[in-house]
Design goal:
By secondary structure, the protein is α+β, with helices and mostly antiparallel strands. It is built from five helices and seven strands; from the N terminus they run H-E-H-E-H-E-E-H-E-E-E-H. The protein has a seven-stranded antiparallel beta sheet with strand order 1-7-6-5-2-4-3, with helices on both faces.
């Protein structure tokens, strides 16, 4: 399945096939975007602004943030389209619309429901993340609206991937987590953009 899986037709995604492909490519790996950095040996984090500044404050800084995102994505994308996943939230395992924020829907309007993942399961409290997926024709800058909302911490838990799930890309407010197919590919990316790395020993 991993070599031949493709979206169904047009912008539609076969979510059953996508779940099966995820289990094949990333066995045992959480679908929660913020947990993907736990993939050992294939993860690298780049910061979006010089000096590890968290939030852009000027249009020039937004330009740097979007430039870094698009530089890395352009290096990763080899096909005509990418998969984009955005999130909604609720207290139960079933999404109750609207569970995605208006800003998320506006930036990712054609997504369909994919799956739900429990974030917290305490005796008196549960919370769930509901993931919505869509296929987006790729061109540099096509995700700028969404990436800008992420940079401002208006939208969180976004995931971008190629249609074969060979690599995963999680933009967050402050940078990006990149999960590559192999440790060698991770090391090459690390070396290419070493000036965007954190100074912290953990890489965070």
């Amino acid at each position: 399945m991993g070599q031949g899986w493709e979206p169904m037709t047009g912008d539609g995604v076969d979510t059953v096939a996508l779940s099966a492909l995820w289990d094949e490519r990333w066995p045992g790996c959480s679908k929660l975007p913020y947990e993907l950095r736990g993939v050992g040996g294939r993860w690298v984090r780049f910061h979006a602004l010089p000096g590890s500044k968290r939030y852009p404050g000027t249009e020039a800084e937004y330009g740097i943030v979007l430039g870094r995102h698009n530089t890395v994505l352009n290096e990763l994308v080899t096909g005509p389209a990418v998969l984009v996943v955005t999130a909604g939230y609720s207290a139960g395992p079933e999404p109750r619309e609207p569970c995605r924020s208006p800003e998320t829907v506006a930036a990712h309007p054609d997504a369909i429901y994919w799956t739900s993942v429990c974030m917290d399961d305490e005796p008196d409290f549960t919370s769930w993340m509901h993931l919505y997926v869509g296929q987006v024709p790729w061109s540099a800058g096509c995700l700028n609206l969404l990436l800008r909302l992420v940079a401002d911490d208006v939208v969180a838990n976004v995931l971008v991937a190629d249609t074969g799930l060979r690599w995963l890309y999680h933009p967050y407010d402050g940078g990006m987590d990149v999960i590559l197919p192999t440790s060698a590919a991770r090391d090459a990316r690390w070396d290419r953009h070493r000036h965007w790395l954190s100074a912290h020993p953990s890489g965070l």
